[in-house]
Write a structure and sequence with these properties.
The complex is a heterodimer of chains A (186) and B (430). Chain A has 4 helices and 5 strands. Chain A is of the alpha+beta class and 186 residues long. Chain B has 2 domains: 206 residues, 3-Layer(bba) Sandwich (FAD/NAD(P)-binding domain); 209 residues. In chain B, the strands form 6 sheets. In chain B, strands 1, 2, 3, 6, 7, 8, 9, 22 and 23 form a 9-stranded mixed sheet that branches. In chain B, strands 11-20-12-13-16 form a 5-stranded parallel sheet. In chain B, a hairpin with a 2-residue loop joins β4 and β5. The longest helix of chain B has 25 residues. The chains are: A alpha+beta (186), B alpha/beta (430). Chains A and B meet through loops of A and α6 and α8 of B.
Amino acid sequence: MNVTTTRVDNGVNVEALLGARAALTEAPEAARFKWRATCSWVNGTHSRSTVQGFFGLGAEQSHKTEFAYDADHPEVFAAEDNGATPVEYVLVGLASCLTAGIATVAQNRGIQLRSVKATLEAGMDLQGILGIDSEVRNGFDGIKVAFEIDADASHEEIAALVAQSQRRSAVFDIVTNPTNVSVVVK
Amino acid sequence: MTRTAGKVGPVARSVDVIVVGAGHSGLAMSRCLAEHSIDHVVLERGEIANSWRRERWDSLRLLTPNWQCRLPGHVYDGSDPDGYMTMPEVIRFIDAYARRIDAPVRTDTTVNSVRNAAGGYEVVTDRGVWRGRAVVIASGAHGIPAVPACSAALPASVRSLTPFDYRSPAQLDDRGVLVVGASATGLQLADEIQRSGRHVLLAVGEHIRMPRTYRGRDIQWWLDAVGILDQRYDEVDDIVRARRIPSPQLVGTPERATLDLNALSDRGVELVGRLVGINDGKALFSGSLPSHCAMADLKLGRLLQTIDAWTESAQLSSAVDAPEQFAATRVPQSPRLSMDLATERIGTVLWATGFRPDHRWLHVPAFDRKGRLRHDGGVIPDAPGLYVLGLNFMRRRKSSFIHGAHDDVRDLSHHLAAYLGGRTPLRVAS
């Protein structure tokens, strides 16, 4: 770990997070969160999803405002391209989760970040979702994430940051490990 | 007439048609060729009904009732029409058929290659070379167990078995067993291994749920009556998909019992999702188990509705029992998503993941990019004079059943006779 005399500020309130960790260790029920989203079909493959409310710390919570996301397919799919594709949102989720983790871990380790840039690419063989070849899976055949990080730290320290961010990442876990999904019609 | 195959080659025997395989399909074709007075030979790598003798587990019985077992010129005439044949009974049934039709079978004759040759095909066996104007592949749809690539990642402590290797629970150690696949094979093996006292996990993907009997009749009777078994390959929306549908969850028992996932859960089998990979000694299961079970329940509901509607329109409602309801498939609250095979004491993984035909000896340019034989209802367009039998949904939904051979062989023997007669074979209509 770097020991610096200047104050490290990545904009992450580590003290608050460590405090929450201590508090939630004592009150594990409060650690149970529910994340929610709603999605409405607009037209064609265009849909609009919103997030605002969630549950945690034993009570209903809310974002400061409602966030909305348009999803669609590009014109090469004969769609209108009103937004990112759903699979691109998965990449967005993974990238932002890992990046948030890097900032947090860096703060905790006293590493000043100057820039963090992630580039993601996921392969997909459309023969799966188009039902051409049942041996081809619908989802990604792999995801590559490349980080370019400028920070007051050695290459090894930066690599360790990136490794730790994966270890504590919710989205990394969601995309690398199976999850029970139940879909019902109300 | 004999000819020599090349200057120094062995003397090849010549015949109009060479049938590869003396199971029910090959013998049925032999019978139809004889009716057309077509000179032919049936080459068999082992004995008559060889796969039924050597590649089946001990407790297996046919999924079809005895009354349904019929071949051209041969019907079941025993005392138990509603029963299901054991393997020794199937072997006796097919043996009796071979004797009855006096089929020209050469046993212990393994075909090593089939190639194009002048005027037809050259068939090289371990007992000499044959030349034929036409060849019928009747070696079955279940030549090779299809095992997923992730099996290579199994830890050395776990034994990997296919249904070809498996005979009975007695050959297993006393550790737990992961059965992969929920077709008829997977359910039957999970059931008998769990009953033997070993703990069984069953990995369940897409599957077809069916009761053994419905409204007092065997489900096969309904599938036949409603016309589902006779659906033709050129009538369905997506034949590639239809050919990949796993076998329905059925078992033939003297009690005519229904074997479904609920019955297995009651006996203590643990249901998990589709096996998606093996990593660091851990098996990973998909989170789609509830979705796959709900889909199978929906499909079962649609099938029963079709049966009820048919019964109504055929004015048979009073001749059969009242409609029945089946409980929805029960899925564990949160199915296990991963399992460390060593710490959970899993000793065996049994791959009930389907089969594919073994055509490695067939050297004709008639395969698609996935290595599957391209055929149009058993006629191979890229290889005139070459035919195949007994594949899943080959001409009809029933094509892979014993009784399914009857209509297919009749159609294809007509096509073959026309081909040999120099006539343009008509597209075989229903």
